[in-house]
Amino acid sequence: MYAKQLIINGILDGNCHAEHIQVLTKGRVSGKIWSNNLSIEPGGKFFGEAAELPEKEVVSLKGKVQESATAKDNSANTEKRLARKSA
């Protein structure tokens, strides 16, 4: 399961990836979780492994991706339609 925030107050069996995971009083998690912010309330249960989320890597694609002819044609057609509408 992948989510930005995960709040568990029931049973979850499996692996989870979330920035914030909160296991409430009636929550039970079994599996491996990846999160940088994990909280377990009194009564909540966790069975498994926990690890931090990997750092997000931003890669610039400028100069690495070629624009296709179709994309150029679509862009030109859109500009023509907008010019006609404004005239």
What would you say this structure looks like, in words?
There is one protein chain. The chain has 87 residues and is an alpha/beta fold. The protein has a domain at 1-53. Helix content is 21%, strand content 41%. Strands 1, 2, 3, 4, 5 and 6 form a 6-stranded parallel β-sheet that branches. The longest helix is centred in the C-terminal third of the chain and has 18 residues, at 69-86. The chain is elongated. Residues 67-77 have a biased composition (Polar residues). It comes from Vibrio parahaemolyticus. InterPro entries: BacA/B. This is Polymer-forming cytoskeletal family protein. Residues 63-87 are annotated as: Disordered.
Q: Distance between the terminal alpha carbons, to the nearest Å?
A: 51 Å
Helix content: 10-25%
E-strand count: 6
Give me the Rg, rounded. 23 Å
**N-to-C series of helices and strands:** EEEEEEH
How many H/I helical runs? 1
Bin the strand percentage: 35-45%
Task: Report the sheet with the most strands, covering strand number, pairing sense and barrel closure.
Answer: 6 strands, parallel
Structural class: alpha/beta
The unreliable regions are none
Identify the overall geometry. elongated
Average pLDDT figure: 84
